[in-house]
Design goal:
It comes from Mesonia sediminis. The chain is α/β, with parallel strands linked by helices. The chain has one domain (about 5-160): Rossmann fold. The protein contains 5 helices and 6 strands. Bound molecules: guanosine-5'-diphosphate and magnesium ion (MG).
Length: about 160
């Protein structure tokens, strides 16, 4: 397989919402398997005529705040191994959290394209708030609202360009 995009980030930032939007009207090609991959969902998508596989990570934490940093780290490390491109989703509502910093630390070492997506940005005020994510040391970010697709086109333009 090639052109694999992994969506990573801590719980409740909106990874699955964005994933579901990407694979809309498409079937997930692989669901729960075993062992380390049991919590990863795979789907097919395309943008600008380029097909790709997208991986949603961290399904085990839906609706739960009770998650260990080590679990997130494991998912991020798997994503780094498996993916060609990584989308790191963070949440403008909460701002930067220690878990975001932890994930950013792993991603800064990666020799693959990493796109920072600041999610839940649906107003000018939140555009301003998004600036605090520069402190993650990952450079430029894309502001998106996965729930309605706002901003996701620009992000996907850049993602498929990176294949
Ligand atoms: P995950 O744990 O990272 O997969 O996050 P989910 O996709 O399950 O979303 C967590 C919560 O954030 C849900 O209540 C979503 O409806 C909400 N959410 C996701 N995207 C957006 C968005 O763009 N704007 C707002 N306001 N809420 C969102
Ligand atoms: Mg999820």
């Amino acid at each position: 397989m090639s052109n694999i995009v992994a969506i990573v980030g801590r719980p409740n930032v909106g990874k699955s919402t964005f994933f579901n939007r990407l694979i809309q009207r498409r079937e997930a090609i692989v669901d729960s398997v075993s062992g380390v991959t049991r919590d990863r969902h795979y789907g097919k998508s395309d943008w600008n005529g380029k097909e790709f596989t997208v991986i949603d990570t961290g399904g085990y934490v839906i609706g739960s705040e009770d998650v260990f940093e080590a679990e997130i780290d494991k998912q991020v490390e798997l994503a780094i191994d498996e993916a060609d491109v990584i989308i790191f989703v963070v949440d403008v509502e909460t701002g930067v959290t220690p878990m975001d910093e932890d994930v950013a630390k792993l991603l800064r070492k990666v020799n693959k394209p990493v796109f920072l997506a600041v999610n839940k940005v649906d107003s000018g005020k939140r555009e301003d708030q998004a600036m605090e994510f520069y402190t993650l040391g990952l450079g430029e970010y894309y502001t998106i609202a996965g729930i309605n697709g706002s901003g996701t086109g620009d992000l996907l333009d850049a993602v498929v360009e990176a294949f």
